[in-house]
Amino acid sequence: MSGTALVDVTLPDVGEGIAEAQILEWLVALGQPVSEDQPIILISTDKAAVELPAPTSGILREQAVQIGATVAVGSLLARIEASEEAAEKLTSSLAESLNRPASQNSTGLASVAAAPSTRLLARQLKVDLGRLSGSGPNGRILDEDVRKAANRNNAGATICQPPPQASRATQGSDTRVPLSRTRLAIARATSAAWRDVPHIVEFRQIDATPLQRAKEIYRSRAEHEGRRLGFLAFFVKAAAVALARHPSFNARLDMGREEIICSRHCDIGIATATEVGLIVPVLRNVEDLSLLKIALALDNLISHARKQLLSASDLGGGSFTITNFGSYGTWLGTPIIRMPEVAILGFGRIQQAVLAIDGAPAVRPVLPISAATDHRVHDGVHLAAFLDTITELLSDPLKFFPEDKVGGTNAR
Predict the structure, then answer these.
(1) Catalytic residue positions?
(2) Are residues 191 and 292 in the same domain?
(3) C-alpha–C-alpha distance, residues 1 and 7, integer Å
(4) pTM
(5) Number of domains making up the chain
(6) Widest CA span of the chain, in angstroms?
(7) Domain that residue 347 falls in
């Protein structure tokens, strides 16, 4: 008869730049059996709520951290009593197993199909998920289902999801609101970037008439395939083409080794406004995607970001960033580079303005563009050349992205 051994469960590296996480809740009690890949603990990082799975089947024998504690990557979280065979199998592969993204699909991991953020909301509002019927795909329970149930349980009460760590301490007429983990991470990252990176910034504006025309032409095909097509897909597509022509912009700077690391793939971060703050999920291998594939991927990525459904693989490891501040009404802005990346591209709100067309003033829809790069890597001439390419592409999308209109062999 085989014996048993204790298997350590440690906090994995769940994304670039995330060094710690807060323990939100234990999902399994001491002494209870667990199955391999069953969520056992809910943590909160700077960017998302994540359920961590058990690396093996067994009995949960130790909870090494308390709820509310903040622990560093690599810290011991729990110990599971497993068979000696399972423990030996994990010895050489434990780190790899724990670093895979925590599953965001609860189907098959628990009897209730709900995302980690939805489960957390249900616990906060004291709603029993087991009694709900989900309105999402395949019966998945959504945040709105939880809030409706909470409203029914608390007739006449207004229910809203409180932001993480939103406790308030009032002194006199002033109210002190602690920074959330996400807001604190944003504060630290932007402060460091603004302090340490010598930004050079350039602004452009282009006649958006051809871009609007291209969007209308491509949109009919997108709607036929059940997809939404916005300007952001064009921005991402143009950036991917421009980065291929200017590879030093698709790069990261390693000052420790005094090296510029040019990325083999075009992994573009998309600055996304969410309820908990700005999050930058990454769209991978954009160079291989058609315009419509980009549109579909953006829909999924941004939706997951706003619902806090991102996995570790969606965060970090980007080679370039786009911020579309025009989507929330801002005309023009100065984007801040995300270290260790070396450049960022920003797009403002399209609005009517006077341009010189063939030597005469004309009112046209105008798209403002701004870009910043790291002066340690590029000079103004390099930034100008990069923006020349961006403006060229977006000034005539029908010419530069023809395969996306007709669904040719290049549309993947």
Answers:
(1) 375
(2) yes
(3) 19
(4) 0.63
(5) 2
(6) 91
(7) 183-406
